[in-house]
């Protein structure tokens, strides 16, 4: 996606070299992920080989600050890696994206907590894989409300959560879970709790058997933790964490995964049309026009993601800017726009390659990519996001300017 060039056009030589090194590491992971992507999809199994490669390349801790043993990677650098992985294996890319979405919350909001700083050191040194538990039985997909609560007893707490979905929960080394601050708190008064895998029990309550994104293994679980130090609870309100880090990371990194899927589909369509052109020199293949349309849509999709990343990088470190209504609307628009574009682009590419793309096992097969990308408008539901945007627009004042928010 080349966001390094487009978001930061004049990187210092050392930073540019580091970005290139990250890309090279991600491409090695992508090669491994691609070898197993079809098997992961067919069996609906965790992309274990790809995640092992991510750990071997030490890409799970790159967002951790250098002072804590990480590499201080930016959101734009991580987005580039999501796009690279998205071309190879949607499930592996989504696992990587979801890991860094949760890590963004720790990096942004955990630096004033000694316990969480030590945790980040462990993530960097041990390459711990982070999962998220924000959805809950009884509240649907509303991550801003919780029924379960942190139940404190002195300096320790217990937590029981009926999690309708925990992506790769059984494979994660660490789960960040939302819960009410205490038993009497309102459902919207939430905190984020860090739970190491050896501190909890997970009882599977549902199995992830889906059309696409099968390898994310997003099963449902009854999560239980007991006798854990209260220090593991981030005291900052989850509403602030969501607004200032999680919302941006989710929409921008998911969008980068979807861009990777869409760009792979367009490349397959391009290769198909080029092959047809070689068979009949001097004639423009029938699919060339559809290819041009798909390439145009891909460029628009890329521009949307890159512009969102640029806005985030400019606002990073400024809580007021990150919590501004206009910023939230922009991020919502990135998600709804890019998720719809991704589906459209893959469908366009499939129409170009025709039956060769519809069949499995051909050089132009796009069935897996189409099934995977169909999840994009559903994570989180575009209708839910558009409803939220509509409410925000009721109180926003428009500037009418091209180059400002």
From TrEMBL:
Keywords: FAD, Flavoprotein
Domain Acyl-CoA dehydrogenase/oxidase N-terminal: 27-110
GO MF: acyl-CoA dehydrogenase activity; flavin adenine dinucleotide binding
Domain Acyl-CoA dehydrogenase/oxidase C-terminal: from-to ranges: 243-376
Keyword Kinase in annotation: no
Cofactor section: FAD
Gene3D superfamilies attached to this UniProt entry: Acyl-CoA dehydrogenase/oxidase, N-terminal domain, Butyryl-CoA Dehydrogenase, subunit A, domain 2, Butyryl-CoA Dehydrogenase, subunit A, domain 3
Annotated family: Belongs to the acyl-CoA dehydrogenase family.
Protein name in UniProt: Acyl-CoA dehydrogenase fadE25
